[in-house]
Amino acid sequence: MKLRVALTLCSIVAVAGLGYALAQMRGNSSQESIGDKTAKSDTSKGDKSMLHVKVFNKKGELVGPIETEKLVLTDAQWHKRRTDEQFEILRSKDTERPFCGTLLDNKEAGVYTCAGCGLPLFSSDSKFHSGTGWPSFFQPIAKENVSERADHSYGTTRTEINCARCDGHLGHVFDDGPKPTGLRFCLNSASLNFTPSDKLATLADPIAEQGAGSRAQGAAGKTSADSGERATAVFAGGCFWCTEAAFEQVEGVVGVTSGYSGGKKETANYERVCDGDTGHAEVIRVTYDPKRLTYDQLLDVFFDAHDPTQLNHQGNDYGTQYRSAIFYADDNQRIAAEVKIQRLTDAKVFDEPIVTKLEKLIAFYPAEDYHQGYARNNPNQPYIATHAVPAACAVRAKHPNLVKQGALTP
Ligand code: FE
What we know:
Layout: H1 10-16, E1 43-45, E2 48-56, E3 62-69, H2 75-81, H3 84-90, E4 110-114, E5 120-123, E6 127-128, E7 136-137, E8 146-151, E9 158-163, E10 169-174, E11 184-187, E12 192-196, H4 208-212, H5 214-221, E13 231-237, H6 240-248, E14 253-261, H7 270-273, E15 281-288, H8 295-305, E16 313-314, E17 317-318, E18 324-328, H9 331-346, E19 357-360, E20 365-366, H10 374-377, H11 382-398
Parallel strand pairs: 18-19
Antiparallel strand pairs: 1-2, 2-3, 4-5, 4-12, 6-7, 7-11, 8-9, 9-10, 10-11, 13-15, 13-18, 14-15, 14-20, 16-17
Helix pairs in contact: 6-8, 6-11, 8-9
Fe (iii) ion (FE) binds at residues 114, 116-117, 119, 163, 165-166, 168.
């Protein structure tokens, strides 16, 4: 059975130690110079390799160019984050067999993003049937986002194209394309992910807010109207009573439901999950307005609302049901979570390694009614007073611009 032991506030100190070192994103002076023709604004800030790219904002609009850092990972890190096929193509510059790619015949309207880092690369507007067997486009969605370099392999000289942010290999560009450019950008499907036109807001990149005054956005969010749009995110950060309380106070969150994910429907109940052998984690499903709050901001709250360095426990709550996990619904959420973890790691926000698991969301099962709004309904319960309230306070301290007026009072 679950052990609800009142702790000292030591764990809260650990949570409070998190912070906005997120802004201190990683750089790597040893990053290979890509010698590109199109990414004109590569610079170096200290030991950081910088570039300018265009990204989507929360409205699903392409904005920029905006300065950002290159994403630099080791081969081991890429291996861990991508399939073998994606690694072979993105990092080892392999080429998939013609007529085999999953996106070759995709005719849906939308945007193709880098399978390595999520950067927007091509629009369906420029896709054409080349007959070569590989997805073909006559221009990138933004010239800044696709870099080029000479490729002298196989005794010929071709022009290789790469993602400007993560340097992932995409394919090659040739000068036998259609009007208006006369170019043919020849892509590997495995280098790309596709997002339909009506879902472009899900591609919102946190750097999009830099140019628009993101820090002011939070304050503005307190008075902005509900857009009516809804998105969801599922997180596991230990006891759901605590994480639910932390997220309920966030502006733009319209509902939080405690529940179970990671196991089967038959065992998705508190008694069985407490046994610790069902595969489930205690999770919360956050329903939010994507026009007022981004998934990336939710990730910030998540990592400040629990200790992601504790393996299969939070404080004295032990068991895999208390693991730290992000249940991603799609590739965009997965990539956003991967990038967030990498940036937190690079910025050394935590003294110990982050052990948060990324798990594909298969199903969410709401918990029993008495678990819903538990902290709100039982503010004087000792466990709530010593765990949930301090966790919520830590989030408020770290994210004053994201918290609703009159939210949970400590
Ligand atoms: Fe990339």
